[in-house]
Design brief:
Elements: H1 7-18, H2 23-29, H3 34-49, E1 65-73, E2 76-77, E3 92-94, E4 97-105, E5 111-115, H4 118-123, H5 127-137, E6 142-145, H6 148-162, E7 171-174, H7 175-182, H8 190-197, H9 208-215, H10 219-243, E8 271-279, E9 282-289, E10 295-297, H11 305-310
Parallel strand pairs: 1-6, 6-7
Antiparallel strand pairs: 1-4, 2-3, 4-5, 8-9, 9-10
Length: 315
């Protein structure tokens, strides 16, 4: 259960937690879920740092999950016609590069972002914003993005390499890949999916003229692009929550010291047995998370040793 927090409540949550209160006690005090109490505490502690990085990991902390999106400037080249062109290296004037980035911590209220200045845009100097996104991403255990694996992370890593920054390691949750794997939308563009689901959509823009204005260093175009990029992050976060029950490459229990059963996707301990899960090699309890709806299974094969020995497999 999500709720808005007042500044006085943030301060009280920090005081209670630092004095030894459990997440359950915080949740009861503020009439919310333990997940929301944890998130509020992390936001309150992080606000003291005044930086991109999340606070240091505390006992029973959730993974630091970031929602990220970048925008890029198009490359420029000479050409003889617009169809079936084979652009050679000699014809290229400038390569595509990162124009801006936006990110937020999941459940957080603040958006962190950066964009090229007019002079940087005209000269395609990405060093400063590459450093700032590196500083933001190095605090992340998990990054959520739409087509992040196929587009964003490759551009980001290229900028890291060009600007002599070391690689970063984090788990990627790509909502584009989830859409392709589990659903049949008419298009897998975030704008199409979010509109069909009735959730927050990307901000409309004027199309390529906006990108051209940014390439020319137009301050108004850069301002609009900044707002557009921020809007993408908010839309991605909403899509993540609709797709959350289908996520399979996340286990938040790895990031805390609890020894109770937790939903791998959201960390909730409110779980119920929901039938059986069968494979050619065994039988496991199927478990439904009552918080996010994810369906997972136990790690223990319910078949005894003799029954497992009797099973045959297809050749």
């Amino acid at each position: 259960m999500y709720r808005a927090w007042k500044q006085s409540e943030y301060a009280e949550a920090v005081q209670l937690r630092n004095s030894g209160a459990s997440w359950g006690q915080l949740a009861k005090r503020f009439n919310t879920s333990k997940e929301n109490a944890r998130a509020a505490y992390r936001r309150a502690v992080g606000a003291k740092h005044g930086a991109y990085l999340q606070p240091v990991r505390w006992h029973h902390a959730n993974p630091h999950i970031a929602v990220v999106d970048i925008e890029t400037m198009p490359g420029m080249a000479y050409f003889f016609n617009v169809f079936e062109q084979n652009i050679s290296d000699e014809m290229i004037v400038s390569d595509p590069c990162m124009l801006s980035w936006s990110g937020k911590w999941l459940n957080g209220t603040q958006i962190f972002s950066d964009i090229l200045t007019p002079d940087e845009a005209r000269t395609r100097d990405t060093a400063r914003i590459t450093k700032s996104i590196w500083e933001f991403l190095r605090g992340a255990d998990v990054v959520i993005g739409h087509n992040y694996s196929g587009f964003d992370v490759k551009h980001i890593n290229t900028e890291f390499l060009i600007n002599n920054l070391p690689p970063l390691k984090y788990t990627v949750i790509d909502t584009y890949h989830i859409a392709k794997k589990y659903f049949r939308f008419s298009r897998n563009k975030m704008k199409t999916i979010n509109r069909q689901l009735g959730i927050k959509e990307k901000i409309d823009n004027d199309g390529f003229p906006l990108w051209r204005g940014c390439c020319e260093g137009n301050p108004e175009s850069l301002k609009l692009m900044h707002e557009y990029n921020d809007g993408d992050v908010l839309a991605t976060e909403d899509l993540f929550y609709r797709f959350r029950p289908y996520i399979t490459n996340l286990n938040v229990a790895l990031y805390n010291e609890l020894e109770t059963h937790q939903c791998p996707v959201c960390g909730s301990e409110n779980l119920q047995i929901d039938g059986w899960y069968y494979t050619p090699a065994g039988k496991w309890e199927s478990i439904r998370c009552q918080n996010c709806g994810a369906l997972v299974r136990s790690k223990y094969n319910e078949l005894d040793k003799d029954k497992r020995k009797s099973l045959l497999v297809n050749s």
